[in-house]
Amino acid sequence: MKQRNSIKKLDCRLSAAAEYARPGAVFADIGTDHAYLPVSLCLSGTAPSGVASDLREGPCRRAAGNIEKAGLSDRISVVMTDGLDGIDRFSPDDIYILGMGGELIASIIGRSEYAKKSGVRLILQPMTHPERLRAFLLGEGFDITDEKLVSDPPGGTAVGSRGGRGARSVIYQLIYSRYTGERRILRDTPEEAAELLLGKINIEKGGVLLSKLARSYSRSRAEEAAGLRSSECDRGAEAERAALIAAKLNEIAEGCGKDG
Predict the structure, then answer these.
(1) Is the domain of 201 the same as that of 127?
(2) Domain count, the chain
(3) Of the candidates 130, 153, 186, which is a domain's last residue?
(4) Per-residue pLDDT tens over the stretch 164-209
(5) Do residues 112 and 219 share a domain?
(6) Which residues, 6 or more positions from 47, have their beta carbon under 8 angstroms from its beta carbon?
(7) Between the N and C ends of the chain, which has fewer C-beta atoms within 10 Å?
(8) 39 lies in which domain range?
């Protein structure tokens, strides 16, 4: 028991991901690193077993060490593999792919037929390009069932990256998805662009975190528009599109909360 109590408590980001765990579901944690999430899922009694995987030997070694300390070596397997390659032999129900770029997450899912299996759920947390991940999911027949925002530490004001000591906390996006086979045709409109960046469900939920996130993206798109306008090439149409997206994002920010 003493060993089990020594396992690191989940941070806000991983805790938010763990909330999507279905009781009794076997899990796969892709890119597990220290295996904090797998250990927590099993120690809490939420999951009976699962697999922790990583592409590199170092993270797999760290994961195996933490799993052994928790007394869970008989319940959590550690495998060194690329993405979801070979994960089907463990028959996971809940698949976590957290802390990677949105394009990489999309590539991992796109290479796997298992991700489309009935009953499988995907819990995703892109560090960058959430819009590209959502566009992939919707265009390839995956339904986005739920989304949430979380800041770590709470009260986050930065977006999209971690800083060093003393840095502002970061707002993370989590996406809960499943395969339905119904592909969505995306429209090139400011409204669609805003939904891909922020998440339609997040927009519907609103809140202060969404306001901060939308405002941050609005500033970056406005800067992009200014840069395109000052370009020596004729990029007026691109500049106008970026400006319209910035305006839509700012409208969302104004409508759902105030910066705190």
Answers:
(1) no
(2) 2
(3) 186
(4) 444 577 999 999 999 999 999 999 999 999 999 999 999 999 999 9
(5) no
(6) 21, 24, 25, 26, 27, 38, 41, 94
(7) N
(8) 2-186
